[in-house]
Amino acid sequence: MSTPSTAPTGPVHVTGTVLTTRAVGAYTHLTLVAPGIAERMRPGTFVAVSVEGQLLARRAFWIHRVRHAGGHGMTLEIVVEQVGAGSRWLAAQPVGAKLAVTGPLGRPFALPKRDADPVSCVLVGDGHGAAPMFLLGERLRERGAVVTMLVAGADEAHLLSALEARRSARSVTVVTEDGSVGSRGRVADHIGEVLRRAAADVVYAAGRPSVLRDVAEAAETHGAWSQVAPELPLTCATGLCQGCPLPVVGEDGVARTVRSCYEGPVVRGDRIRWTELAP
Ligand code: FES
Question: Is residue 232 in contact with ligand 1, taking CB distance under 6 Å?
Answer without folding.
Answer: no
